[in-house]
């Protein structure tokens, strides 16, 4: 298989057990995870806090040693070809980490030097322009706003022009406008051919941005599907009915998964769309003598699927 056909990242049977603090066995953070990140995609890595996402990213970055399994980045095994694997990936960490006494330009120049990039081949000015920081090139990094520091971290991760960019919770704690700017930058990099892996707690962002999503829970991979297919896994649909007059007793029917009153004259009925449809639900309500004056429906979204899958994983 040529690299043009190979995954951008390939992970097989990845296990990480942290050393015990006392006499125990130590925390098993990753339990034999296997997945591929296709080239050219924006790939979402989701999961609750403590699920193992950051551990996986830190293993790829060379900051955490895996217990067993294999990881390849752009075809380079992180054990047998660490140098090339490192050059193939850029990591944007959750924490803002750079010397506050350097200017943004110096931050990028120093990073380029660490990668052995000759001065004539460095792209510091272009990268600062890409993240809209040209006017701050000579300012001390400590004087930048939180949003500017986030953008500088993206530029720093792209200094060596890696084909893979990993963003670990890049929009945690930032305002709506900065979040929009960061996602525009991510989309542009992806349009230019960079494969992007991101972890996020904002499920609506993952649903909008990602081509494919993997969900990790308690160190195990519980889903890995194209985003649309994952959303389609949600079988439940909700219909909200406004009735002609208030009711004292909720309607009941075997097709209802759940029925709740949200106001004296408004009820919300959840049903399994694989087993019935909205027309049958409306017919069942009308058959019980209730006149309907308005109907709205809500499709399941990624948040519904995420909650459903992680809940199932905890009970099995």
Automatic annotation (TrEMBL):
Keyword Transport: yes
Residue ranges of coiled coil: none
UniProt keyword list: ATP-binding, Nucleotide-binding, Transport
Pfam families named among the record's database cross-references: ABC_tran
Positions of the ABC transporter domain: 9-243
Residues passing through the membrane, by range: none
Molecular function per GO: ATP binding; ATP hydrolysis activity
Database matches in InterPro entries: AAA+_ATPase (IPR003593), ABC_transporter-like_ATP-bd (IPR003439), ABC_transporter-like_CS (IPR017871), ABC_transporter_ATP-binding (IPR050763), P-loop_NTPase (IPR027417)
Protein name: ABC-2 type transport system ATP-binding protein
């Amino acid at each position: 298989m040529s690299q043009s056909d190979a995954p951008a990242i390939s992970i097989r049977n990845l296990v990480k057990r942290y050393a015990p603090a006392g006499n125990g066995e130590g925390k098993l953070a990753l339990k034999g995870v296997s997945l591929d990140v296709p080239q050219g995609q924006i790939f979402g890595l989701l999961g609750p806090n403590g699920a193992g996402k950051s551990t996986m990213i830190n293993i790829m970055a060379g900051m955490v040693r895996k217990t067993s399994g294999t990881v390849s980045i752009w075809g380079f095994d992180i054990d047998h070809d660490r140098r090339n694997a490192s050059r193939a990936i850029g990591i944007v960490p959750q924490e803002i980490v750079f010397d506050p006494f350097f200017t943004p330009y110096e931050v990028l120049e120093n990073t380029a030097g660490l990668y052995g990039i000759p001065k004539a081949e460095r792209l510091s000015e272009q990268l600062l322009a890409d993240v809209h920081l040209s006017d701050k090139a000579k300012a001390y990094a400590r004087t930048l706003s939180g949003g500017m520091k986030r953008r500088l971290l993206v530029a720093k991760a792209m200094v060596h022009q890696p084909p893979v960019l990993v963003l670990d919770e890049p929009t945690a704690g930032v305002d709506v406008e900065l979040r929009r700017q960061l996602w525009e930058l991510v989309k542009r990099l992806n349009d230019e051919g960079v494969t992007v892996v991101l972890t996020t707690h904002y499920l609506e962002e993952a649903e909008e941005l990602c081509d494919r999503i993997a969900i990790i829970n308690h160190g195990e991979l519980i889903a890995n599907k194209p985003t649309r297919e994952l959303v389609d896994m949600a079988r439940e649909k909700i219909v909200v009915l406004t009735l002609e007059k208030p009711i004292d007793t909720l309607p009941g029917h075997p097709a209802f998964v759940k029925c709740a009153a949200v106001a004296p004259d408004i009820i919300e009925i959840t049903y399994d769309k694989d087993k019935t449809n909205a027309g049958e639900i409306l017919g069942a309500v009308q058959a019980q003598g209730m006149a309907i004056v308005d109907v709205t429906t809500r499709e399941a979204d990624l948040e519904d699927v995420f909650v459903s899958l992680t809940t199932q994983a905890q009970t099995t």
